[in-house]
Write a structure and sequence with these properties.
single chain; 120 residues; alpha+beta; Nucleoside Triphosphate Pyrophosphohydrolase; three-stranded antiparallel sheet; three-stranded mixed sheet; globular; 8-oxo-dGTP pyrophosphatase MutT (NUDIX family); NUDIX_hydrolase_dom
C-alpha cells in the first residue's frame, strides 16, 4: 500500500488532502497523491467516508491503481513508500490504517468516525 510519513508529525498515513473548489474529489486524489508521493494513480472505486469528530473533517477514500512513478519525499512527506499490510498495521494510527483495510474489502463503502487516531 502506498503511504507517506508526514512531514508535520512524522506519522505514516495514506496520501491525501483537501479538494479544491474547482476540482472533483477523484481529481483531488490524483493531484494530492502525485504531489505527495510522485506516483500517478487512477481512482477505481470509493471505499469509505471517514469523519474526524474532533476537527470536523470528512475524508473520502478511494481504491486506486498506480500508473507510473516511483515513491519519493516531498514538501509534505519525509518519505513515501510501498508498505506491506503488516507495516500498515504497525506504523499507521488505527483511524488511518482502517482506510487501507476497508479498501481491500468487497463490501464497501464504509462510513466511520474517529478522533484523529482511534475509531469511535
Amino acid at each position: 500500500m502506498l503511504a507517506i510519513q508526514r512531514e508535520d508529525d512524522g506519522r505514516w498515513v495514506p496520501p491525501g488532502g483537501v479538494v479544491e473548489l474547482d476540482e472533483t474529489p477523484d481529481h483531488a486524489g490524483i493531484r494530492e497523491v502525485l504531489e505527495e508521493t510522485g506516483i500517478q494513480i487512477e481512482p477505481d472505486v470509493l471505499t469509505g467516508v471517514y469523519k474526524n469528530m474532533v476537527l470536523g473533517v470528512v475524508s473520502l477514500t478511494y481504491q486506486c491503481h498506480p500508473i507510473s512513478g516511483e515513491p519519493r519525499p516531498s514538501d509534505e512527506a519525509l518519505q513515501s513508500a510501498w508498505l506491506t499490510l503488516d507495516e500498515v498495521k504497525d506504523r499507521m494510527p488505527e483511524a488511518r490504517a482502517i482506510r487501507v483495510f476497508d479498501a481491500l474489502r468487497s463490501d464497501s463503502p464504509f462510513v466511520r468516525v474517529h478522533d484523529g487516531s482511534r475509531l469511535l
